[in-house]
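Here is one chain, start to finish.
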Amino acid sequence: MATTCDEEHPKLLFGKCRWCQRWILHGEVVPESAVEQLSPELENAKQAIHTILLAKLDLTKVNAMPEAQVKRELRLVVERLVEIEYPRMTGLDRERIVRAVVRMVVEKL
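Its structure:
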């Protein structure tokens, strides 16, 4: 059983390191800039999820919550929306969409 990033990264074909929480592809850390960059298809998916989310959010309740709680709860909701709307999306693409949508909403608060 791997106990550190140095041991776990080479064993990961794709996924998140449980120690450092960074994305790993073929044993290598995926640069943060690559995680944040969205293709046109993902940009469209991001906008669609954002639109669905805003239609369901009660912004008065959201504005009354601490920012850390907002981010945590938004992340859970966005993850679920992406699973429902785009069930075949890869894990890395899901993470990109979730991060982007949460950031968009938090910036507007």
